[in-house]
Amino acid sequence: MKIVLGPSSLQLGEKIAELMRTKPVTVASKNFPDGESYVRLEASVRNEEVAIVQTTGPPDQDTKLIQLALLADAAKRSGAEKVTAVVPYLAYARQDRIFLEGEAPSAQTIARILQSSGIESLITVNVHQEKVLSKFPFQARSASAIGLLADYLRRKGLKGAFALAPDNGAMHIAEEAQHVLRGDCGYLEKQRDRLTGQTSTESKKIDVKGKSVVIFDDIISTGGTIVSAAKIVEALGAVSVHVACIHGLFIGDAEKRILEAGVQEIVATDTVPGKFSKVSVAPLIVSELSR
Ligand code: R5P
Question: Cα(94)–Cα(249) distance, rounded to whole angstroms?
Answer without folding.
Answer: 14
